[in-house]
Fold these 2 entries.
Entry 1:
Amino acid sequence: MRCGDFRETYAEDMALFETAFARRAMFAFLAAMMAVPWVASAFWLDVSLRVLIAVVAATGLNILTGFTGQISLGNAAFLAVGAYSTAYLAGHWNLPFPLVIPAAGLITALVGMIFGVPSLRLKGLYLAVATLAAHFVIEFVASHWDSVTGGVNGISIPAAKMGPLVLASDRQLYFLALPVAAGLLLFARNLFRTKVGKAFVAIRDQDISSEVMGVNVFRYKLLSFAVSSFYVGVAGSLLAYQARIISPENFPISVAIDQLGMIIIGGLGSLLGSVFGAVFITLLPELLRLVTGALSTTFPELTTLFASVKMGVFGLAIVLFLIFEPDGMAARWHHIKNYWKLYPFSY
Amino acid sequence: MLDVRGIILHFRGVAALSDVSFQVKPRTIHAIIGPNGAGKTSLLNCISGVYRPQHGSISFDGHDISRLTPSARTKLGIARTFQNIALFKGMTVLDNLLIGRHVHQHTGVLGGGLYWGFGQREEIEHRELCEDIIDFLEIQHIRKKVVGTLAYGLQKRVELARALALAPRLLLLDEPMAGMNAEEKEDMARFVVETAEERGTTIVMIEHDMGVVMDLSNRVTVLNFGEKIADGTPEEVQRSKLVQEAYLGEPTDLSA
């Protein structure tokens, strides 16, 4: 039970972690995450790298959809923009990764802003359809602009490097992706403690009254598209460095839907929710694969059914979450935390 | 301070306001009254920029603001509350007030995301200003509550707080006391008077409670069917025949 916790300055009241214990727990968690490459097998290392990339992308989408209330189905396309920018900047210009990754983010931010312009007039489902158009436009460009994207054959990406440092294996990339993901989460957390982030949430809750309160709604919607796409672009860049070869097939619409699933299951408008959702949706097929693999000796027909079982369980998971925990895994986490905070005196 | 001239507003042929003009003097409480559907809220929406009237001009401190967006008018110092509470329901009371500080803050995406340094300094500075308003309106106990969970009367008070956080020179209140019990009304009336007297804010207020209107306001404008039918001190307005007819109907000679 928490007690003796007094705050004497506004800085203390606005601190990132409510208690010193929470801060230490976070550092311990990050340290444990740093140790993953030494214990994980090649398979799980690949999975955890994909989880980290999904965390960054889902955080980006959550900034736009969960916090600002602008539904977007363009995430797979924005991921592609980040990945292809990486292929071009690292392949043609031979730039080092500390330049390539932010540059890929910025290029994607720009593209995201362009496709965010319809949000001036469109809301909800209409905006979702407009961003769907973005998906198909970008997919078309990716498969036809052969000189830059390699067309339908795809394009290969050199290993991430900076001078003599080369990050070729999943293990090496993990040490890049973890700080990037942690840093971007911290950045987002700070953003929502200050002016811009609060304006985003205000637009989600009440767009007319936020305009009357002096928020330039259109400008901030575009800004939200930019920040969100920056995150997705960075995720795309990491994805390109991991995959080493990308083609339009890497970015089907189902990727965008998966990411929407992540933030819905995890929790709209919650950074922790993006993390939970990304972990859950990325691990779900892998766990299913393990289960069906273990059962395949007794039920050989399961392996052939795997693809449909996976989609079925994914759908079921979303439906169950919408019914039993519409606020997502993050809300459940807070309930659990609040319960233990006062344990054993729950009133 | 505020000069509204010849406002004509219609929605596809339905006239909401026809040729309404009035002036608001600095540091006064100016009430706008009238029966339901008289166009009071439409008038307020024209002043705050939510509606664009087809004709007429609105000037604030000598500047023509008729063509400005709502957010640009807010930057000049016009704040408002809404008839049906338009708070940010998913945010805490404190965050709602901090949105009120939006136009006075300068942190961008980078400054905010990197936080330590400029972003934090600015947040603390504005937090202190918001805390002053929280003390003024006596809502300390709910500052960290999510607004959507609060009782109606408190939400109304938070909405006033949010508007005050803007530090406006002109405050537009749309039925600040609607749906309140007597005690809550007394509190709200006290806050409105104190805002005008202590903070020197000019207030334009729509209100149906005639007792409140006559007690608080320095000047009253009466609308009926989109037209201004009276304008003057509360006493003058009460004596106006047109106003009596609008509220009570035409006098019938019972002896006939």
Entry 2:
Amino acid sequence: MSLVTLQNLSVRHSGNPVLTDVNFSITKGEIVTVVGPNGSGKSTLLRSIIGALQPSSGQINRAPDLRIGYVPQKLHIDATLPLTVRRFLSLPKRVSNSVAKTALDRAGAANLADRQMSRLSGGQFQRVLLARALLCDPQLLILDEATQGLDQPGSASFYQQIETVRQQLGCAVLMVSHELHVVMAASDRVICLNGHVCCEGEPEQVASAPEYRALFGTGTHGALALYRHEHNHSHDSDCDHDHHNHEAAE
Amino acid sequence: MILFDSFLIYAALAGLGVAIAAAPLGCFVVWRRMAYFGDATAHASILGVALALSFEMSIFAGVLIVSLLMAATVSTLSNRGYAMDTVLGVLAHSALAFGLVAVSFLQGVRIDLMAYLFGEILAVGPMDLTVIWGGALLVLGLLWWRWSALLTATLNPDLAYAAGIDPRREQLVLTLALALVVAVAIKVVGVLLIAAMLIIPAATARPFASTPERMALMAAFIGSISAFGGLQLAFTFDTPTGPTIVCLAAILFAVSNVANLLFRSPST
């Protein structure tokens, strides 16, 4: 059963095309990761799915009554705004104490309820954001580079939490990540995005796709090399997409 | 003696109305860093006064119209590549200047200018009081109704979208509330000091509040004390009332910060 389907989605930012003809769907329980260079439209894709951006053409079909939990890329809470974690969870809809507690427990943030949001550490903050996304008992959990700014152990334990959550709730997970080793280890499917879908498939397929290597390289560019260095080094791309900017960087 | 009592009571009630409407709105102004935006809207309202006097409308309507126009202009221009503070700097002061020039064209108004710049709370009559409390209740109702959505949109626009809230609509609600507060406060503290009534009580309340709601309530309390106390002090020392109210608010702000420094550890 498909939760969200995008058909020929195109999105423009002040006249410039950011996404062109993107086709995508995600089904129940699946973990899909979107990878791609900066400015490739990863966040735009997620924000279109949650409805924060209007497509300039194409269609977004969401399953009826789809519950989406969204963990934003970063959230700056101004220190002028006094806000406890508990109060934060009740925005915009008031939730009962038991619902709040369950969500905090699931997100690994059990003891943070009375803390001020502006005084949490990076890792604690992300867990609270995760807890907030879990309040609606989501069928689809969307994370936009949720571990940005966390150190290696912090981000590893965060992704472990995501995996636990998926096992508990059976929700689908759609995430953007720069951490290629995490992607390869945790995803059912990877989508390589650069304004359009360059390639997609299981992590191993994608990692060996020439389009993907044109974007990320096979050498020192990604932690991926640790896992996939046995692949032969072909940069010859047989696809007709534009990857020159990234090849130049290699 | 009856007369003396009633005008002081009117003044006190007017100050109270402005204080409790300005407090929760002022919190949003502080949280969203819109302080200068409030200033700009307030400064533009002198143009509204000129407009109202020349077309013989009520001051309230004139100020409301111009404040809303100002807010709309600011929103439009800030999307055109100018930095927000530049846009506001240009618009706030030009609106004030044009307003002052426009008022000077009107016969017989010049003597009243000070009343609009610094307020004339002691001249508040029953009619003014009705307008002030009507406006204040409208602002409170608006904020009460949209409170959760406003808070969510203030936190993060994307979180708002994900919850089915349109942050642009909430921005509009705040703009409308701001124009209303400016329109009702002009008689009490005057064009130049309205922003102070928005920001100072909210800033004073911040160190002692743990949730947004408590901050708004405390700000309302602090604003009310400033209004009552300021009125009393102005009467005792024969000082201009509007500025005295703001002075008292500023003193409370200073005291709250010193108290916070003394009685709490630096980490909290």
